[in-house]
Structures
1.
Amino acid sequence: MTMEAERTLGDEEVTRLGELAAQLRVDAIRCSTMAGSGHPTSSLSAADLMAVLIARHLRYDWVNPPTRANDHLIFSKGHASPLLYAILRAVGAISEQELMETYRQLGSRLQGHPTPALPWVDVATGSLGQGLPVGVGIALAGRYLDHLPFHVWALCGDSEMAEGSIWEALDKAGHYGLRNLTAIVDVNRLGQRGPTELEWDLDTYRRRVEAFGCRPIVVDGHDLVAIDEAFGQAREATGPTVVLARTVKGKGVPEVENKPGWHGKPLKPDVAEQAVRALGGVRQIRVTGPRPEPVPAAGKPSAPQPPELPEYEKGALVATRNAYGDALRALGSRPDVVALDGEVSDSTRADKFGEAYPDRFFEMFISEQQLVAAAVGLQVRGYRPFAATFAAFLSRAYDFIRMAAISRADIALSGSHAGVEIGADGPSQMGLEDLAALRAVQGSTVLYPSDAVSCAALVAQMVDRKGIAYLRTTRGKYPVLYDNGDDFPIGGSKLLRAGKDDDVALIGAGVTVHNCLAAADELAREGITARVIDLYSVKPLDRQRLLDAVRDTGGRLVVVEDHYPEGGLGSAVLESLADLAEPVRVNHLAVRGLPTSGTSTQLMDQAGIGVHAIVTAARALC
Amino acid sequence: MTMEAERTLGDEEVTRLGELAAQLRVDAIRCSTMAGSGHPTSSLSAADLMAVLIARHLRYDWVNPPTRANDHLIFSKGHASPLLYAILRAVGAISEQELMETYRQLGSRLQGHPTPALPWVDVATGSLGQGLPVGVGIALAGRYLDHLPFHVWALCGDSEMAEGSIWEALDKAGHYGLRNLTAIVDVNRLGQRGPTELEWDLDTYRRRVEAFGCRPIVVDGHDLVAIDEAFGQAREATGPTVVLARTVKGKGVPEVENKPGWHGKPLKPDVAEQAVRALGGVRQIRVTGPRPEPVPAAGKPSAPQPPELPEYEKGALVATRNAYGDALRALGSRPDVVALDGEVSDSTRADKFGEAYPDRFFEMFISEQQLVAAAVGLQVRGYRPFAATFAAFLSRAYDFIRMAAISRADIALSGSHAGVEIGADGPSQMGLEDLAALRAVQGSTVLYPSDAVSCAALVAQMVDRKGIAYLRTTRGKYPVLYDNGDDFPIGGSKLLRAGKDDDVALIGAGVTVHNCLAAADELAREGITARVIDLYSVKPLDRQRLLDAVRDTGGRLVVVEDHYPEGGLGSAVLESLADLAEPVRVNHLAVRGLPTSGTSTQLMDQAGIGVHAIVTAARALC
């Protein structure tokens, strides 16, 4: 079956589209019943929409999913995975056998919710309200960087329209004039536990979408001709579009149509069998939709030159957030590096990149969820995004970071203004749980440099790092500790003071490294020799360095961090040494109370992570 | 100065309001210049709005902030704290000396951003887009629970209108018909690093607000008469209102008026002095605004009866999420207990409460940020909210939970569907970083029961717990392990198997307790005696129990958790034993790879947290 969007939709085509939709329904029912779990009713409501899309509008080379000009199809309502996988069978991407035998089984790439284990899936979905925001990032790449005619189609559920992130996405789509983006909202009126907030109030959806700068197109989501016209209009529109499709949940199976209590429930085998029969039985339709426009092959990227990293004078006072900006600007010599910020680039110092490379800098305003989602979308298109905001405010996007890890996205995040060190602004602005949160992200890298030289060197490595790479930077200015050109491998550490006979090891990262150095000086005056370790790589951690310290000091460690006590640097050290046979005593200094306003020094002292506290802790161990 | 909203605003009153606004401006300038930091320009834009509000519309007894019928004033744009504190001086709540000498200083309650260290401040703000959502919770209490005529006024910045959470809030305000809620948006056109997305496009704001079910009232934010009319209309409106005020950032100080580059910067002393002079100098106006309507005193609450907790048969298969619902329903006998859910109450089993107490159950649909914010607002009014969604999706509200801790809010959160145990739905639905994230919240409590009896007992204690109390529940059904009526103190643990000569201790929580028990049985057949500890209280942790285990087993511990390896149960155990002098060897089993779909048992086995892995780990230690 081949259809072209250019032709008018005749009766025959309508019949064939109806057959295709029936096959999608049948397959969605069959695979979920076979698996004994899944969301058939949420798939049935969108089957007509997707049949028209893949047969006539989605320009996609299914054999070569990385094709540069391929459209992108994102199931923002990831729970409709039976429908997505039914599509994959219909286009010949997967076999009927794979669909029927492996859906939701251990080891299958046809997981309960879509993940990029499938080459046709850009990002993992299943946490609602994320697919469309990621689509915004892909569309940004298409319009502003790739200059390619691909279109991004995001299938959304109506329940997820209650997520603020959807409105962040539509707002940005409007702001950036993303005519290459279409959200298709499957308004089937029923959420998981009952009616959605707006049910079939399409007019309210329409007014909201319009007010947010997108063009709404309201259709009957089961009228194939109307759907076809809507998608045609969406492709030709001069701005972002939202197809608001009134649909019926469970459409095609009278037993469950428009009935609550059927969310996420497969049909029982006998009901399924009857439904499949009523829908005309199993089909073997193979659809070939439109192909992407031929576009020139991408120029072979020249091997990236090592960036000319900024240099700093040893001892000079430089904030690591400034070094982030400097290094990011230096990385800008690579055309695949892009930067984003949440309207605080003069604080995170991402503005240095923005000024040098305005075409590759995306201002996401105060919408941290969209900030991270756009970064994920940009890396789908092969870019290397660096997204920055205050460390504290990355917590706003934690679910997006979590999902980005499941998407196997490669993104760099920079969180500035970490810890009580920020001073007078008070606890709302202090990142104090970010190390715990970011460490717990699957496959993440967590970096926390103490000076400008190490910061720049780490930023340079983040650009090619796999997974979620997080950099924690400090607000205040501290002395440059290292020589330009020093090595700071991820997973490494630095010994700032060391001898074979050290009495104790002082272990810090970021700002507390400076406190450790001062404490070591003070301890030396008391005759206690303290090793000082800069654990700039919090994850992965330099275990060998810790083992050496345990061996040389008799297991006397002071770990000090500008972070709450749980899950941060101290935990990282303890986890790393958990299985050690010899005794290790760790005196762990962290921010245990709720901080207030004050100066950096006052607050670090008050929290017990200042010089005096480190001296006392070391003394107690010796 | 006393004015009443009932009177028409005459010339004399306008003059006096102008004087009050000038005093607010002068004080905001003075205190931030004195502190050397702060946000005067963001305060100047809203001074006229606030002068009219406090003098004529905010019904508030400043001497008795807990007065039941007091209005609520929330600075959602918390960075305008100089203006808030200038108000507090103008109403006589704080002295000029406190304002001038302590703002942003260590130990002061006048912190960089407002916190409830001040009795007139309901919640901490400073992470944008949170004050209004919390206001929705307060207004829900006013309209549906208190039935009191107070009004909630939230001063918002225009930058924060880009946060999706603002639209979640307005959506819920409209949905619940919160006529007692008014957002006042200070549209001063300039964000931190430059123009806002919409600048002075008041018409777009108007259309958005209207589409989200609220009544927009557009005014010139420096026209005192217009402002007064707008607030009068807001108070009398039949639904939620949004006063969209076009303002000028830095208004009143020509050097900075409407100029970028002045966000978050105090005026230099000489500029400040000149500005104060131009504004007419320091004033000593004391304003008394309208008082709250007299309302009947609250009935003295009867001492809450201990709830009749659900009982379970030992050995019966019960999911802890079901026990959550059962216990919550039992707690419903207390009239201050309220419950909220994010449209998944049939999964979290909050529906059990919702069915029994529909008047105290708030459906927040799929908007987890608003879910948590509403809980925070409800506890402002003295209620004991329980908010539930999937553990994975609480990550969506992490910034709100972080801020709730700074607000010293007492809320209970329930995250269901924890870990790989959920099975076929796949990683997007699995809470696998929640223990790390929630443990890192300041002052939090983290509970993870293994069976229905302990779960119910813990839920009963959460109701009076201070701070953020998090309960992690499991999807599947597991045997009841404990006797009804057993004690499960927060901070405690349970010994399920123990002897003086135990070779090793198996430590689990939640679902892994069951795996530990099975492993102990298997180990016993090999002649290895294993202690089994149920660490149902992950924070605070039962350190003594661990010390006993270390002593009795020679420091051989296996910790097993259905969570990523960083920051969870294993870290909690290690942190607790960090300073121990004797050797402890911990074999830490956790979910190290990215999970997929599968059955519970398959996935636990694959992750290395199943019975076989525990046996192997214990054997390796012995």
2.
Amino acid sequence: MNNQNNTVLVTENMTALPPPGAPDIEIARAVKPWPIFEVAQRKLGVAAHALIPFGHYKAKLDLSQIDTTSKVGKLVLVTAITPTPAGEGKTTTSIGLADALNAIGVSASVCLREPSLGPCFGVKGGAAGGGRAQAIPMEDLNLHFNGDFHAITSAHNLLAALIDNHIHWGNELNLDARKVSWRRVMDMNDRALRHTLVGLGGPAHGQPRESGFDITVASEIMAILCLAEDRKDLQRRLGNIIIGRDRDNKPVTARDLGAEGAMTVLLKDAIQPNLIQTLEHNPALIHGGPFANIAHGCNSVMATRTAMGLTDVVVTEAGFGADLGAEKFIDIKCRISGLRPDAAVLVCTVRALKMQGGVAKDKLDSVDADAVKLGSANLKRHIENMQKFGLTPVVAINRFPTDDAKELSIIKEVCLSLGARVEEAQHWAEGGVGAKAVAEAVKTILDGEAPDVQFLYEDDLPIDDKIRKVATALYGAEDVQFNIAAQKQLDEIHQLGYGHLPVCIAKTPYSFTSEPSELGAPSGHILPVRELRLMAGAGFVVAICGDVMTMPGLPRKPAALSISLDDDGEIVGLF
Amino acid sequence: MNNQNNTVLVTENMTALPPPGAPDIEIARAVKPWPIFEVAQRKLGVAAHALIPFGHYKAKLDLSQIDTTSKVGKLVLVTAITPTPAGEGKTTTSIGLADALNAIGVSASVCLREPSLGPCFGVKGGAAGGGRAQAIPMEDLNLHFNGDFHAITSAHNLLAALIDNHIHWGNELNLDARKVSWRRVMDMNDRALRHTLVGLGGPAHGQPRESGFDITVASEIMAILCLAEDRKDLQRRLGNIIIGRDRDNKPVTARDLGAEGAMTVLLKDAIQPNLIQTLEHNPALIHGGPFANIAHGCNSVMATRTAMGLTDVVVTEAGFGADLGAEKFIDIKCRISGLRPDAAVLVCTVRALKMQGGVAKDKLDSVDADAVKLGSANLKRHIENMQKFGLTPVVAINRFPTDDAKELSIIKEVCLSLGARVEEAQHWAEGGVGAKAVAEAVKTILDGEAPDVQFLYEDDLPIDDKIRKVATALYGAEDVQFNIAAQKQLDEIHQLGYGHLPVCIAKTPYSFTSEPSELGAPSGHILPVRELRLMAGAGFVVAICGDVMTMPGLPRKPAALSISLDDDGEIVGLF
């Protein structure tokens, strides 16, 4: 790489940064952020009055004050191979790519999900990128941020309170208290709330019944907020939420309870996209954070669309590997919103492919070309999968110092054999300049003809066939198998007239099968479907294949115990 | 009143307001607020960089950037007679008085509690003053505001999660799961959460135990936030929270669990006071909202102290009538913080005194001088009570159109016979100018010698004698009676070395007795003490006398059902 170019591209701030490998928080704090109105003005052309500031370095975009109709930027989806404990760096690559695009003169922004507060107190670590590819202020992003998750928690729990209150005061809708499926939520890792009895204590305190809590990101309202086109669409979808059944087993909705208006009021600010900046002062729209298993795992449609109205290229990320994240991005988010990606980037690392080839985590530092070769079957499957959507991805090899030339060349061969461009990326160590080659490759694709993006299935395919299609086409499965309960739910969903909805498959992200230990690119397996959940508000049917945890617990030594403020009021222990 | 003066005093905005009697929200929306940095700059001398904006009309004051040491403003406590459904208008009078002081040329601010979100969806109505004496933006204030309550909810529930997690992973502290007194909180009216079982579902999901939820304003953390001097004091108090007992019945604290650091991190922004404005663009510091029964019911010490460092006069309000609110303000907030009021205003209405005299709510429009005379015993008791603290209040008669001259003169006689100044106030209809007479009376007192404010009891009086002192001196009780459980708790609190703490009496606010229907100024009764709760973090002992509801329920027809956004995105039905 050309050193002189480096010097030009590195911003005044980046030169003074702690060396690569310094803690993320040290790097983040070494950068002097631009006032957020300056980011908005210089990078998005958005005037200060159209921002709703939250402090000096965060804001919401007031969509009533912003014209997003005069431009339609290109959309780049960042996805990855099957995740392993080795780490792939999808968020880091998304941020690095946006910085790199700006560095080569393209007006680009990055759209990401908001992290959940609860898990920060469990296992150490935030979610704002890393190294020299971060979104800041990372402390705020990982804590209360701009209050969106709290608003979702409030709206969710208001509906829950209205349900129990309805039953308490006479149950006019004839709700079956045993079949209330709407639980409560909290943005906290709290296993003791998974299964609860509520309404105890006597007649003054409601109707006793079994219930429980999920973490806020698992709320259907989170999925709804991320799929809504605007406030009216949000309210319509909130009204469609099925909260349980009546005594005739008919679905009862939030609209039947009259709850959707007040819920929308609680969400009126939360639906406005949030703006922060990367370490290189490029715009990062961070908005919404639905679970990637029981929901679709990408940031809000409103944020993506806003970013496309304000910058020429928008880099966005979908959760987990391409089999789950990219599939849901296209088959759910794109289908519902009308958005289409113009290019895709598939992130991999030598280390992760080594793990896919069977190497243990503590052996990843040793060169092992054979393991990489074996593991690259996983990469190959993901590239082929993306091609089924009509997208040949640019493969970004997120470089580690331990990577060997032989290992790298094996990966490159696989990519080239499938017609995919492949580039190394060093944004973690170098910031945007480190991802310049990826950015150039992406730009070449964007400058060419738009891809003909295809859904994997059409709306009118029955739900079971949709699941079968995803399993056989993407996971390499031979078939799917519905257990008796799921079969019954399937019939019911069709009878109720929801057969046209897309499916959202909740399975382990660590394997193409339902068994996390099956690495590489297994095939011929059967995907077991245990349960179907109708998310009538969000607008998809969740197919649960294996255990899905909707309320995490804290570990034996939670990070919370070492988190505090130092004498200067700076957070220690959170990252 | 002088019309010409009126014209001068009314701001440009107020002249264009809807007529008195228009809905509060219409009046509020008719005023064009100043940008909050302008309020800060012009009214507080605080520069924009020392604000943490939340939108354009709300901010937090960044106390690290503000010098509050060069001034010590005078403090005016607004309190009231015993509350009735007729309404007294304590918040309205506090706001009106601050506006009136500014109108007569005094630099004044108002310090109030933040309202709770949950109750807004129960019975219609917000809490930001009313008529032409309001704090704006009232919608935000009544919903998520600047996120303080959500932060308190998170910090509270993190501690709860850490407790259950500690038990789950082996219970090193030997916590007695049956004696965990730390519950969870939610800012919602949800009766079904009052009594719950948590930890059900098998060994992977924690230890089953009885527990429940309180509304967030009832959290000890809310009381702590409002009493803390600064961040360090906050953390110290959080660490002192007693969360339950171990198997040897020894108290276990949040510090024993190592939770106070992470809790402080969650509260790091919440401790900064919030700034909004009155309809007349005067500074309103709205911060904290502890329950007025099981806590001390006034805004944060940090907000009061900040306001005193920035304006010459600070008007603040305490919850319920003077027997509860003013007593706790002085015996708890002032004792702990070192603050002292320089004057007090006691709010009453003709209608409320009529109710105290036995008139039913639907008969209040009729003139009834006898009832007023009878009811003014209540007013008399409150004035005498305030004098026991060394404060002769200015009595503000909050005028209603139905008030009769005879009725008014009865009230005035009572006040004058006790040496108290009394003035009529019409801020609800007229804004600040309407409370000019009260403001002048207050100013006269402030210009005179500072009162010698006395606590009702000294620290070293035993807890039971403290309660007895309050009951006999203020409530007119003959004695207090501890039931067996409370007696046991009393002994234990003394044994544990907490006998020096002040007491916080939780009883009905509607009577001097523990029986809400006993109006006027009853005496000779016995105050029953049912339970003592040691709030070691907040630093007081709660004496529960009668039923105390720490988690409200929703009514049969909750306001939530008629709350929504109109086509312009404006909230309807909330106020």
